[in-house]
Design brief:
CATH topology: Glutaredoxin
Number of domains: 1
Number of helices: 4
Radius of gyration: 17 Å
Order of helices and strands: HEHEHEEHEEE
Strand content: 25-35%
Shape: globular
Number of strands: 7
Length: 144
C-alpha cells in the first residue's frame, strides 16, 4: 500500500510542477493591421500557449533576425522555446516540436493557406508544416 501512495504523491507533484511552470510562452512578431495574425494568436491561446505580440512595420526583417529563410515566409513570425515558428502553424505541431526537440530552426507553413489556423475558410486547401533544419533545408513535419 505504501509504494502506491508514494507513486500517487510523486505523480501529483509532477503534475503540480508542470502546471506551476505554466504554458509555453510564444512571442509573435506581426503587422498591426493583420487580422489573420490575430486569429492565429487566438488559436494559440485557446490551445494553452501564453502569447505576447509585437506589432512591427517590417515582418520580413524580423523573420531574417530570427533566422528563418525568407522563401518560407508568411505574415507573422514567432519564437517559442528557442525555435522559430513561421506562419499559420497548428498548435498541435508546435506541441510535438517542443516534445521531440529536434535540432532545427523551427517550423513553417509558408504563405497564407486557407484552412490553416487563423485562415479559416469555407474552402480549405491541404498543406504541410515544414521542419526547417539549421542549414535551411526542409522536410515535411506534418500533413494537414
Amino acid at each position: 500500500m505504501k509504494p502506491l501512495r508514494i507513486a500517487l504523491t510523486l505523480a501529483l507533484l509532477a503534475t503540480t510542477t508542470a502546471f506551476a511552470q505554466g504554458a509555453p510562452k510564444v512571442e509573435v512578431f506581426k503587422s498591426p493591421s493583420c487580422g489573420c495574425c490575430g486569429a492565429w494568436v487566438e488559436h494559440m491561446r485557446q490551445n494553452g500557449f501564453q502569447v505576447s505580440t509585437h506589432d512591427v512595420s517590417d515582418v520580413p526583417a524580423e523573420r531574417k533576425k530570427l533566422g528563418m529563410p525568407d522563401r518560407l515566409g508568411s505574415c507573422h513570425s514567432a519564437k517559442v522555446a528557442g525555435y522559430v515558428i513561421e506562419g499559420h502553424v497548428p498548435a498541435a505541431d508546435i506541441r510535438r516540436l517542443l516534445k521531440d526537440r529536434p535540432q532545427a530552426i523551427g517550423l513553417a507553413v509558408p504563405g497564407m493557406v486557407p484552412g490553416s489556423p487563423g485562415m479559416e475558410a469555407a474552402k480549405t486547401m491541404p498543406y504541410d508544416t515544414l521542419l526547417v533544419a539549421r542549414d535551411g533545408t526542409t522536410r515535411v513535419f506534418a500533413r494537414h
